[in-house]
Design a protein that fits this description.
Residues 263-280 have a biased composition (Low complexity). Pfam families: FCD, GntR. Keywords: DNA-binding, Transcription, Transcription regulation. With 287 residues, this protein is mainly α. The protein has 2 domains: 6-81, Winged helix-like DNA-binding domain superfamily/Winged helix DNA-binding domain (Arc Repressor Mutant, subunit A); 86-284, Four Helix Bundle (Hemerythrin (Met), subunit A) (Up-down Bundle). The model is unreliable at 6-11 and 253-287 (pLDDT under 50). Helix 5 (104-122) crosses helix 8 (171-187), helix 6 runs antiparallel to helix 7 (150-167) and helix 7 packs antiparallel against helix 8. The chain is 57% helix and 6% strand. The strands form 3 sheets. It has a two-stranded antiparallel ribbon with strand order 1-2. A hairpin with a 5-residue loop joins strand 5 (264-265) and strand 6.
Length: 287
């Protein structure tokens, strides 16, 4: 039996292909499909929703643009479920905020609210793999130990928080903090007149905070992790302001950002910036 289209459910009038795209999303949910699973063939979707081939293809293209589906051609082609990448989600969010006056203060106000709870929630779930990844991150971001350039060190500062996010059992909190981390990586630049010594001091203080947080996490002291992270976020917000940190342009990804290589995975399963990602035009920012 053909599925009832959603005009009858009080949904506002949309293009037919958009309505079909919403129905395909429901189909994915009802069949519990996961990334890598195939959608029904186009002809089957046509018959199920009683629409033309063109409408089905337009609906699938819409889902592909959203990052939910990958379309392939050929005899065995069709739609395959995909996991929406974080940078695609960030791009949609930035487009939504395009005409909003979002500042560093706004970003760090939210970060100060969420990061302490995220870190505390992660403590019971941290494994030896996570601890090893956190230690490695500290060695990479500490100017007294790392031979990396300043931009790579600052990216690694943020990666430390990604590792904690990966261990959080709260998927919505994890997602929100990862989006903030990605915004910091992609959009914040510093005044060109900021002395290199100031960047180095910022990195050293961050590394000290990260060590203290790691030690408290190893002791499974969630309250101490929360306290330290709160202090760390207050200090980071003040330092970024002192270093003339600002949002680069409007909140929208450039084409280079959308094409950057997929992030590598650490042993703890968290994303880490690839060398190619660390050599964008923003490399001059810390100077």
């Amino acid at each position: 039996m053909a599925r009832t289209m959603p005009e009858q459910r009080g949904i506002k009038q949309l293009k037919r292909s958009d309505l079909v795209a919403e129905e395909i999303k429901r189909l994915i949910t009802e069949r519990n499909l996961n990334p890598g699973d195939k959608l029904p063939r186009e002809i089957e979707l046509q018959q199920q929703f009683e629409v033309s081939k063109g409408t089905i293809r337009e609906a699938l293209k819409s889902l592909e643009v959203q990052g939910l589906v990958k379309i392939s051609t050929g005899p065995s082609g069709g739609g395959t479920i995909a996991e929406v990448p974080l940078n695609r989600t960030l791009q949609f969010m930035q487009n939504y905020l395009f005409f909003q006056d979002v500042t560093i203060d706004h970003i760090y106000t939210v970060r100060q609210m969420l990061e302490p709870e995220l870190a505390a929630s992660a403590v019971p779930h941290l494994t030896e793999e996570h601890f090893h990844a956190l230690e490695h991150s500290i060695s990479c971001c500490d100017p007294t130990q790392s031979a990396e350039d300043l931009l790579s060190q600052r990216r690694e500062d943020v990666h430390f928080h990604d590792i904690l996010a990966a261990a959080s059992p709260n998927p919505f909190l994890r997602f929100t903090c990862e989006i903030i981390n990605e915004m910091i990586r992609e959009l914040i630049v510093y005044g060109n007149r900021t002395p290199l010594s100031e960047h180095r001091r910022f990195g050293e203080v961050n590394a000290d905070f990260h060590r203290d947080i790691l030690n408290a996490a190893r002791a499974r002291d969630a309250d101490e992790v929360r306290r330290l992270m709160s202090e760390h976020m207050r200090d980071a917000a003040a330092s970024v302001k002192r270093m003339k940190g600002r949002i680069q342009g409007r909140l929208i990804l450039d084409t280079e950002g959308t094409r950057r290589p997929a992030a590598a995975k650490t042993s703890a399963g968290t994303a880490r910036a690839t060398p190619a990602a660390a050599t964008t035009t923003r490399k001059k920012a810390p100077t």
